[in-house]
Amino acid sequence: MVIFIGSLLLGIGINGFLVPYHLIDGGIIGIALIIHYYFHLPVGLLMVILSTPLGIYTWLREPAYFYNSVIGLFVSALFIDWLAPLKEQLQIPILVSALLGGILIGLGTGLMLRYKTSTGGTDLLAQFVAKALSLNIGIVIFLIDGLIVTAGLSFLGMITFIFSSLTILTVGVTSSLIIGRPDMRFKA
């Protein structure tokens, strides 16, 4: 159920609020969105393709993370591509869109991570880093996402970069609040 709800929130957040303004999230989703904006390929399919190398690494190193995230990856990819028509349904200002998109994506990501699943991609990388360094995974995701958006600045333009950065900040804060402290997590 967590994967279903988290994936639904991701699909709505991405298609309803980010895609209309060509905003990006960080991580694999952000990279998939950049490719989508240039080549019009399905974002969910791109997520699966881009996540494959890290998925293989995870399968070899931490099989439990792999099995929990592969389901999240495929269900999220399905919802993201299925909800693609939302990009033409909502017309709200870019600031509100960046904030609402960030909140929905942060809720979906945080919910999935709280119950030990994810969408794969850099969420898996963040899980490894957070575990190794005893850091809050939401903060690690925020840092990785910030690096990806900063690297994509030349592709995005300054306005899109600023609002994408706001989205990523909102995703990071929201997911951190949902995940909570490690000793406060529910048992899955």
UniProtKB/TrEMBL annotation:
Q: Name one Pfam family in it.
A: YitT_membrane
Q: Per the UniProt record, which residue ranges are transmembrane?
A: 26-52, 64-84, 90-113, 125-149, 155-179
Where in or outside the cell?
Cell membrane
Topology relative to the membrane: Multi-pass membrane protein
Protein name as annotated: Uncharacterized membrane-anchored protein YitT (DUF2179 family)
- Organism equals Bacillus benzoevorans
Keywords (A to Z) from UniProt = Cell membrane, Membrane, Transmembrane, Transmembrane helix
Matching InterPro entries: UPF0750_membrane, YitT
UniProt keyword tRNA processing present:
no
Under the cellular component aspect of Gene Ontology, which terms does the record hold?
plasma membrane
Q: Which PANTHER family match?
A: UPF0750 MEMBRANE PROTEIN YITT, UPF0750 MEMBRANE PROTEIN YITT-RELATED
Its main subcellular localisation, reduced to a broad class, is: membrane
